[in-house]
Amino acid sequence: MKRIAMLTCLNATAICSSGGCFKAFNNRDKTFEIYKGEDVELCAFFHCNGCGCDYENDEAFHEKLDRIISMNLDSVHKGVCTFPKGNECEVIKKISERLEKSGVKIIKGTHQ
């Protein structure tokens, strides 16, 4: 069974219901098409710690990533909110780099 998570932007939570992400996952649609016919466990749905996050010194941030890494995920899908207008923020880049170094595949996209 594949184990995945979704990463979204904290700032987007004010306007986003996350319904599009979950609908695409449940229907194995859009970027989740790659899992058609497979057993997949959605293990986490998490957010960055915001644009002002001091990535290097934020203990809570690193604790969250340690928990995500400990889940032994196959991949993390980054929501469209993590790259508005095609530009990925530095915090999302740092999260992606850390997860990739731990062996987690990063997939750009959920319901777009």
Question: The biggest beta sheet, please?
Answer: 4 strands, parallel
> Rg from C-alpha positions?
13 Å
Structural class comes to alpha/beta
Helix share bin:
25-40%
Level-2 CATH architecture: 3-Layer(aba) Sandwich
**Molecular shape:** globular
How many structural units, i.e. domains?
1
Cα distance, first to last residue?
24 Å
SS field, number of helical segments: 3
Which fold name corresponds to the CATH topology? Answer: Rossmann fold
What strand order characterises the main sheet? 2-1-3-4
Strand content: 15-25%
Uncertain stretches: none
Number of strands: 4
- Report mean pLDDT, rounded to a whole number: 94
Map the helices and strands:
Elements: E1 2-8, H1 19-27, E2 40-47, H2 59-70, E3 75-78, H3 90-101, E4 105-108
Parallel strand pairs: 1-2, 1-3, 3-4
Short description:
This protein is α/β, with parallel strands linked by helices and about 110 residues long. The protein has helices at about 20-25, 60-70, 90-100, and strands at about 1-10, 40-45, 75-80, 105-110.
Structure description:
The chain has 112 residues and is α/β, with parallel strands linked by helices. It has one domain: Rossmann fold, CATH 3.40.50. 29% of the residues lie in helices and 21% in strands. The chain contains 3 helices and 4 strands, in the order E-H-E-H-E-H-E. The chain has helices at 19-27, 59-70, 90-101, and strands spanning 2-8, 40-47, 75-78, 105-108. It has a 4-stranded parallel sheet with strand order 2-1-3-4, covered by helices on one side. The two termini are 24 Å apart. The model has no long low-confidence stretch (mean pLDDT 94).
